[in-house]
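Dear support,

I submitted the protein below through the web form. The confirmation email said the job was done, but the results page showed an empty box. After a refresh the structure appeared. I'm attaching both so you can tell me whether what I see now is the final result or a partial one.
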Amino acid sequence: MLFLKELHVCGVLLAVVLMGCFCFGVNGLGVYGEEKGVRFPHPSLSSSSVTERRVSYWMSTHNISGTNNAVANIGALGGRQVATSVFLYCGSSVNDTGFFFSSSGTAECQAAINGFHAFNISAEVEVHISLIGLRYLMANPDVRVATVQALKQDALKYNLQGVAWDLEPEGSDHQDCINFAQYLGEQAAALNPIGVRVTTYSNVYAPVIADVGVLATGANLVTGGETYNGNNLDQWMQNYKQLVSSVEDINLVSPGMLASSERGSWNCETGSMQERVNQFYADKLVEFSIFVLTDPQNPSSGNCVSLWFQYAREFLNTPF
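What the results page shows now:
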């Protein structure tokens, strides 16, 4: 969904990155439960997870370069006061024969991970898989176990707080969704004890990720992309209500906000932002997600993520 660009780290960000390495440690392991885990477990896995609100951002590493540096901007606005987690598109993937290729250790991804860690913001890495790859894994349990262990080792090595999936293949069916949910559950069983949550993106365009209720039986969180696909506020509200009604526990879903005018200027109007956040308060929502999808090479697509910061701050500081 997003395109990776070369990351240029300025002096200010370099200091932040160095601080992140000092505070979190790239390979530092802590103790979580009875098993060694990531130094700082994801807050959603703590006992206070249902009483503390969260705001997450989906973005590529090109969103932390240049003058619109997300790490610097979020840090300047209070860090954890406006963001609790960031889903990073670094390029990690599982191939068609179930082999996991990690991009967590690239310079671009490390700069992002350590930069956000310096502000006590969780870093979750997106992983892509094709339909061929998913079907291969489901037909080969031993390979599936090995892939889950590879994801676990990647999280431990790079101190990640989450693994997130974004796949929208053509030709899938509802059985693929059931199988994918099983695979998500297997990951959660292995990753949750070390402080790492499992998330998947969802929308109606690909049956493998269309049934939120099924996906929520395996994943810790389902992010509803169908909400940000709305072409106006009314459509967004309809999609949102369908999302939250898909699960018995609202903590399992996170509606998506598009920080761009790509699907209409209404997305970037502060009135519509406030109306959506008010709905979250009414429903006692725990987490919502902001998608920063604009390409810096195409500024006409618009980018209004900065307008969301005030509502993120308000949401995070408003008690249930």
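Response: this is the final, complete result; the empty box was a page-load delay. Residues 1-34 have pLDDT under 50 and may be disordered.
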